[in-house]
Amino acid sequence: MLKGRESLIRLVGRRRRFLRRRHALLASSAPQHQIGCKEYKDEVSTGDGNVDEEEWVDCPVCGKKIRGEDRVVNSHLDKCLARGSKRKLSQCTLFQLNFCTRPKITVSSIESDVTRIDVGPSTDHGNICDLASVTFSKNICDLASEMNSSDGPENDIQDESKSSVCNRVNRMENLDGLIKLDDECKLLSDAKTMQIFGLEGSPQHQISDDRIDNIADSPLSLSEKRMPKCVEPSEDDDNSEILLDTFIVGRRFGNDGELTVGAMIMLSRDPENVKDQNAIKVLTKDTDHNKELGYIPRELAQYLSPLIDKFHLRFEGHITSIPQHPHAVVPIQIYSSGIVSFGEKDSSSLQVFNSLRRNALSAAEFSKTHSPIPAKYQHNLLLLLKEVLNINGHLFTEGEKTLLEVFLSLSDDSQRLFARLYARKGPWFRMASISYAEICDYEEAVKGLSEAECVTLFESMDKLQINDLKEVLNVLNVGELRDLISSLNKTHKKIAQNSDRGTRKQDYIARVLAAYQGGLCPNLTSMIIGKTGRCIRISASAESVFWRAERLFFLNGEQDLSEFLLVDLGIVKYPAYNCIFTDQIFPDRSDLLSYEEAIEVAQIMDESLDENNNELVSRCVEISASNVSSFVEEDRSAHSGSMAAFLSCFSGSWVYSKVILLGVSFLEHEQRFKEAINLLKLLLDKFKCDRRRGYWNLRLSVDLEHVGCLDESLEVAEKGLLDPWVRAGSRVALQRRVLRLGKPPRRWKTPSFSSSVKRKIVEVHVQGRPLNCKTGVKNVFYGEDGDRCGVEELALQYYAGEGGSWQGVHTESGIWLTIFGLLMWDVVFADVPNVFRTKFQTAPLDLETDSFYEVRRDLIEALLDKIEHGMAEELLIMSWESHVGTACRGVNWDKHSLSELRAAVTCIGGPCLASICRNLAQDYRSWSSGMPDLLLWRFRDDYRGEAKLVEVKGPRDRLSEQQRAWLLFLMDCGFNVEICKVSHAPI
Questions:
Q1: Which residue blocks in 370-411 are alpha helix, DSSP H?
Q2: Fewest Cβ atoms nearer than 10 Å: which of 286, 460, 581, 948?
Q3: Which residues does the chain have with pLDDT short of 50?
Q4: Cβ neighbourhood burial of 898 (10 Å; 0-12, 13-18, 19+)
Q5: CB 41 within 8 A of CB 678
Q6: What's phi and psi for 654, nearest 5 deg?
């Protein structure tokens, strides 16, 4: 993958359905024959000092201007004559993201009515329970009922069509098929209270526990589900009958009979329930087979279950009313059918009984006024919109505010339907296949959304353009498309001649589109509409406004509404911190629009690379270079506090710089080094205070050497070493280039850093029996136990034995970032204005900037002083026990145990550990990668130990400049450092 591609993908995030400025952007600037700004095009000369003039010619196929080099012409003609599109890269889904130890999901079979997903065993971690299987069917229980029930090991959740199951599991956008991890909506109650302060510093709303509360002036509050605190026992309690009003949740359905008011029920313990050991089932009492109706809410079951188990109480009751919605919770009243007697000497049991009784009454009373939330998608979307309007209302036009206000006034069904559709890929959906348990009246829901201009409907093909037709055809499955083509084949021989070419869905769609454009079948549109039926999609205006709101809420492209679900399901627990606002990210709308326009260019660039459309890639780079050319870097002193360090990341120019950097990699891959040089000079000229200047200088020096400009290449490397923004591996790489290029007669004086860079690092050689010897394939060896292993595992076996009886782990940077995050937890999440802007951050926005250390200097140095004087292990244990399981940048709770971390910090020693932590605090971005592969330690008799860091290299590997920089730094800190080179044993 090209350098900078992954970063651009993260920046773009979920691709927008409608790029409203696409055509305007691509036609905005005058066409340029060469990528880069004119002011830099004439600065690159050949070795003899003459300017190289480029010749441009017209392509005889597409008519576009292309460079006149034979290689470029031939390559372009090949693509024009046999143009095809690559399959697009699929984005990570909710279930592919490795938040923690997760169930393994595989599609085992696709049947006619039910598709079954087998879920492999899962480690007991956090709130995630082992699931034997999850069944997709057309009858689903209400999502909220499932999330608040002590359900059995199998759950029914819907699928709108059997053909969309794989797509539903593998695409993040289709959240309607979300597999239920049945610790439901339980949020850990031991989190601290997070308070958000307004621009004037006054508290506006709070986020307590892990529950995401709404803003103060909103009627919506997700905190309403919070349970009251346990009630202490009182002397006035007695052991009289217990009478409770509650609900049946996780309701089961069957064809035999319906529920009736007054029907008798009974409670039965379900201690074998793997998801909740306190689970209590609700059974019918007036039938022979005691039909299961559902479960008691988890919050109440935790108090009733010990009353049943320990005090042998029996609970009966009746159904008090039948809800109008078939999937809603069922109100019931239950009562105990016996009285427990306690002797005078059994006062402790009486206190326990009374405590459980009072808490059960309190939980039931609480649930009467706080019933389960029926539609979390709707609540989450409303929360997002209201908070964005409250904080960033100045960034929306009156028309956009009106659209949002109209949406907020729509019926629950309309809002819930929109929330479901917005979370899916689309863009078109067949109305006949849309079915959600929480929506009662689809016709009214669609009508409301259509009147609010939030969705677009079509019932005839007359309204659609060719691109829309292609999108509509995508809602058909392969079988339907094949039937459609078969119908066409009966009457149109030309289509029949091509019917055997291609069996993929896109091949079928292409043939239908060809028939439509060629006018071969006049009634084709009616045939298509007969297959698709009535369809719906999110309107372009609504998609634009809601995308903007989502971007302003999360401030990145990697997060979306699924973050709410991750919290609700207990998959992710975010840390507690204060959000203090003193400045706006986007002071006015023009700043936001320029940022959004740059994001659109970045998305077009990403899509063009997927499609191998080199012309469009070049056009995106030209647009970016043109915008950067007119950019004037602001004086950061004009912005107060920590705002100055990361503000540039939310500007259009910063986004354009990432497009340009990716363009540099593209040009280098195409061996168009002169154009790459133009772009690198542009970046270095326009961004004087950027942490990427080290890489830019390095690539400029390398590319200048490629075109034969050795003197200029050396000069760039020397100037780069004087730049304070050139650090870590880039600095070492430039130093080594200066030493290599700066030999007589170019340079006679040896640089002062020569001895430091040329320092010898201890090398250890280990031989192993190779399993494969192919170039470009990861080295695999036979270990000492005969099993297959990599070079790192082979090195660990060597050091555990004849290498010195060392213990250790293969971790690279992982264990160091985990130790840093745990030791510096209170510093990372300290109260600093503007660095925490959302409720879903795992680190402050300025962590990877210089201001992280500058703003918190006193806090950091005080903590480093404690670490240096031997308190690291104590701080580590306290942080681990206080925050275990909470998401934090760099901290991996699963990979490293507390015992390993304690051993590591003890053997490393305070001074060395403080040096590493200070280095990361001062420049986290530059030093958060490239650390040695192995961390080894061993103890002496007095519980004092020693540590060693080892970089492992296979037969064909060599040190990267970043790895070399880390080894040199660690040597300066006093670490024991080695390079272990693994080679093939002689046969």
A1: 376-392, 398-408
A2: 460
A3: 29-33, 38-54, 84-237, 254-256, 496, 498-500, 635-642
A4: middle
A5: yes
A6: -65, -40
Rounded CA separation 822/476 (Å):
51
**Contact by Cβ (8 Å): 148, 297:** yes
The pLDDT, as a whole number, for residue 868 is: 94
* Integer Cα distance of 937 and 912 in angstroms: 14
Whether the CB-CB separation of 323 and 301 falls below 8 Å is answered with no
How far is Cα 308 from Cα 303, in angstroms, rounded to an integer? 9
Span 512-534, pLDDT tens digits: 888 877 777 777 777 888 888 88
Decide if 757 contacts 732 (C-beta within 8 A). Answer: yes
Spatial separation of the C-alpha atoms in residues 583 and 392, rounded to whole Å: 11
What are the DSSP E strand ranges found in 111-269? 115-119, 133-137, 156-158, 194-197, 203-207, 243-248, 264-269
Closest by Cα among 888, 875, 897, 867 to 817 = 888
pLDDT for the residue 183: 35
Distance CA 215, CA 218 (A): 6
CA dist 311 and 354 (Å) reads: 11
**How many Å apart are CA 834 and CA 503, to the nearest integer?**
54
Half-sphere exposure of 173 (CA within 13 A, CB side): 15
Cα separation, 322 vs 842, in Å, equals: 44
Tell me the C-alpha distance between 926 and 965, whole Å: 10
DSSP single-letter state for residue 90: P
Closest CA to 888 of 489, 577, 633: 577
Residues 764-777, buried b or exposed e (16+ Cβ, 10 A)?
A: eebebebeeeeeee
Taking 3-state DSSP, the helix, strand and coil percentages for the chain, each rounded to the nearest 5, stand at: 45, 15, 45
Give residue for tokens 């002071």: 587
Tell me, what's the pLDDT at 114? 33
User: What string of H, E and C letters represents the secondary structure of 14-63?
Assistant: CCCCCCCCHHHHHCCCCCCCCCCCHHHHCCCCCCCCCCCCCCEEECCCCC
DSSP conformation letters of 585-607:
SSSSHHHHHHHHHHHHHHHHHHH
Residue environment code for 86-119, b if the CB has 16+ CB neighbours within 10 A, otherwise e? eeeeebebbbeeebbebbebeeeeeeeebbebeb
Give the pLDDT confidence score for residue 195 in this predicted structure. Answer: 41
pTM, full prediction: 0.71
Task: Quote the tokens at residue 446.
Answer: 């669609």
Nearest to 300 by CA among 337, 272, 332: 332
What is the number of other CB atoms lying within 10 angstroms of the CB of residue 305?
22
Name the residue among 954, 913, 901, 596 with its Cα closest to residue 772: 954
Residue 698 pLDDT: 96
What pLDDT does 778 receive? 77
Give yes or no for a contact between 985 and 769, defined as CB atoms under 8 angstroms apart: yes
CA atoms within 13 A on the CB side of 916: 29
Tell me the helices (H) and strands (E) count for the chain, helix number first.
38, 25
Give per-residue pLDDT as tens, 664-683: 999 999 999 999 999 999 99
Distance, in Å, from the CA atom of 174 to the CA atom of 324, rounded to the nearest integer, reads: 28
Buried b (16+ CB within 10 A) or exposed e, 189-216: eebeebbbbeeeeeebbebbbbbbbbbe
Report CA 941 to chain centroid distance, whole Å: 46
Quickly tell me which residue has 């201690």 as its tokens. Answer: 271
Q: Which of 749, 365, 763, 385 minimizes the C-alpha distance to 548?
A: 385
* Nearest residue to 275 (alpha-carbon basis) of 139, 148, 137, 143: 148
The DSSP annotation for 251-312 comes to: ----SS----TT-EEEEEE-TT-SS-TT-EEEEESSSSS--EEEE-BHHHHHHHHHHHHTT-
- Measure the CA–CA gap between 230 and 217, rounded to whole angstroms: 29
CA distance 365 to 303: 13
